[in-house]
Amino acid sequence: MDYLYYTGTTGTDFVGFSGDRAVWANLLQGDDLIEASLGDDVLIGGPENPDPNFPYLTDNDRIFGDTRSGQNSNDQIYGGYGNDTLFGDSYFGGGGGNDTIYGGSGNDELFGGDGNDSANGGAGNDTVYGQLGNDYLIGALGNDTLIGGDGNDTYFNVDASDAVIENASQGIDLVFSYYNYTLGANVENLGLDGFSAINGTGNNLDNYIGGNINDNSIYGLLGNDSLKGLDGNDYLDGGEGNDTLYGELGNDYLNGRSGADYMYGGVGNDKYVVDNASDVVIEQVGEGTDTVISTINYTLGTNLENLTLTESAVSGTGNELSNYMLGNAASNTIFAQDGDDTVNGRGGEDFINGGTGNDTLYGDTENDTLVGATGNDLLSGGTGKDAFKFWNSNEGIDTIRDFGVADDLILVDNLGFSGGLTVGTLKANQFHIGTSAQDSSDRFIYNQSTGSLYFDKDGIGGVAQTEFAKLSAGLAMTNQNISVTSFII
What we know:
By secondary structure, this protein is mostly beta strands. The protein contains 1 helix and 49 strands.
């Protein structure tokens, strides 16, 4: 390596050489040109007695070579072929090779040329061209314009004041931003960077958008998007298209919207919005207590605990877990299935079946039908004329907390209970108030002191009576409060 020191004039200087050279060009105060051709060269413009740690040029200079520094003026620096590193202010051309270009302060123009280049505009309002190759373009400070060109380009430290420009069919591009950011035209992917609670929005393409460790709101808009919340309590909205949503860590809210969407909440107490029969919700064991909010008929999948029905008269079905299920203002049909479930029909004339387990069922408003089924269930009809159905007398003892003799009914299945019952209002001689049957006709016995309701298959015969329900004590019940039916469901 040869070391050359050149002291220029106040006019227009030209320095040219080849081979392995290190050149300090001093007092370049005019419009100068330094060109290094063959070899591994270091070109530094600076003052007399140069310190290579603080290189700079002083006027409108141009440097050609392999490692260059031009600072504190309007410099023009061209990399040529090879893997170049360029420092300075104003105008940079990387040429061929994989170049690294630093704009420094000022309003710079950076051209990566061919190769996979890294271009950092630095401070100022810069224009950065990646051109060919898979380039890394860094906005840094100022209102920057970043133009990747052909190749799969990556943009860093981009904010709303920066313009990212890509044309169609110029590769798959990625923006990293520390700020709220919306992808522009022809840019596919977005990564939310840093530690702040920031938001990201896609475009009409098939986007990949990833969050950070904080709480993010991510919107896919059009296209078949892939959204990932990472850490934090995230809101993921797929928009149109068949989207894939990953909540990851945190208590996330996932809404695929239109299309057949795949939603995976991950660890945390997640909520899912389902509006398409082809939507898929995935949860693993031990990942939290999760809720599906559905506008359509829906059956809870494996490892999903809760279901909320919205908008219209739709039905909901639970699973083997202890589910919490809510109806809506319309008339819903809800089957809780296994587990110790809690179901509230809310508005509308609801049909609620607790299935197996010790369930808690609320009809809430209007005229509801509640079936405790197997288990010792807690039933509340709420307001309205409510019916409480029993298939047989051996399913457990259900507690009816608000049975009203003026409006409510006990419905029993004629086949399940047997004992000579006929469909219709229970016959008067088959009902008795007391502690046990008094003759062979008595079938239903209500104990006013305890509120217990019994069934006796043969009256005073040899079969013992069975308690199947507990009502409030002291009710003025009659046979009119019990109706024998032939159940379909």
